[in-house]
Amino acid sequence: MSDADPAEPVLFATRLRPHRSLNQRQFRVLLLGIAGVSFVSTLPFVIMGAWPVAGFMGLDVLAVYVAFKASFRSARAYEDVEVTVLQLTLAKVDAAGARAEWRFNPSWVRLERQEHVEFGTQRLDLVARANRVEVAGFLGADAKGRFADDLGRALAEARRGYRYD
Hey, is 149 helix, strand or coil? Predict the structure, then answer.
């Protein structure tokens, strides 16, 4: 991701991805389990002559399949954040692959956190002049709080400038 000068050290770099609780293999096992339960529970109805029930149970399995596929498709989105002494770069890539990129001077950008007493960090924004960009919107409150702490430390280090040893 970095277009920066190789001599310019990267202080912080991460790729944020939405969390998904199932991988593809676990999804197949779950779907086979749902289809098996649906098939077994439909058999008595088919035997009694109420065969349309099988179609409706099949629609339930299809609905679960479509919902999980949509969830997996949305999980292809990600955000790249990189901080150097001279630049903070935020790149957002949506599930379709469309990319939007923002560049900020770390000395002039501030990280705004919206906190809820009970639920933790609810929203993170990078703010510079009139520009306001939400970052890490798909993370949970705890992960968002840890990310904000790490990014805040990197921004503080960038504001201190170059270290000449």
Answer: helix
Q: How far apart are CA 103 and CA 87, in angstroms?
A: 7
Torsion of CA 157, 148, 124, 101, to 10 degrees: 60
Alpha-carbon separation of residue 48 from 36, 57, 59, 72, 113 (angstroms):
19, 16, 20, 38, 60
3-state secondary structure of 53: helix
pTM of this prediction? 0.74
- Per the CB < 8 A criterion, the answer to whether 73 and 95 are in contact is yes
pLDDT in tens, 129-150: 888 999 999 888 899 999 999 9
For tokens 């002494």, the residue is 85
Average pLDDT over residues 114-124: 89
